[in-house]
Amino acid sequence: MEQFNNVSIIKKANTYQDGKVSSRTVLFEDGTKKTLGIMLPGEYEFSTDLKEEMDIVAGHLEYKLPGEDWKEINGSGVFYVPANEKFQLKVYSVVDYCCSYLAE
Length: 104
Description:
By secondary structure, the protein is mostly beta strands.
């Protein structure tokens, strides 16, 4: 999906990792939520409450999910993070991403 229609956007940015990761929250009429963000180069660890779909729109990174080896995305790609887990990122260039929060 290239464009989201009929949504609300929360104006205040979510910032993480000393401002090197930022996003905006997009709320849909059906109650679902996504964030659209940018990650600057660096190494990060995040934790989840809900299952997440990480849609990498552009950029170069490696990600590591619990119990798995490092995997690379260079350009675009998607990966899923289970609920209540931590995952690691090595970001090599500016990454443009869309995170969807999924019901189990």
